């Protein structure tokens, strides 16, 4: 808003843009929270509305495990190139 006012835009336009940006930030936060809650309920609650504690683990999420595998593969291939 300050940048628009300094740039010479009318104050009402700057206020409208600021309101739109604040609405978009709060809407995206609310949407992400609701999505996270729905995913957690879908995973942790079964069809009989019981909490499934065996589905809650301390293991690394699969995406981080794949990233670690990729990095170790790259590291091993670079070491092979250096050793040869």
UniProtKB/TrEMBL annotation:
<dbReference type="Pfam" id="PF03649">
    <property type="entry name" value="UPF0014"/>
</dbReference>
<keyword id="KW-0812">Transmembrane</keyword>
<protein>
    <submittedName>
        <fullName>2231_t:CDS:1</fullName>
    </submittedName>
</protein>
<dbReference type="InterPro" id="IPR005226">
    <property type="entry name" value="UPF0014_fam"/>
</dbReference>
<keyword id="KW-0472">Membrane</keyword>
<comment type="similarity">
    <text>Belongs to the UPF0014 family.</text>
</comment>
<dbReference type="GO" id="GO:0005886">
    <property type="term" value="C:plasma membrane"/>
</dbReference>
<feature type="transmembrane region" description="Helical">
    <location>
        <begin position="20"/>
        <end position="45"/>
    </location>
</feature>
<keyword id="KW-1133">Transmembrane helix</keyword>
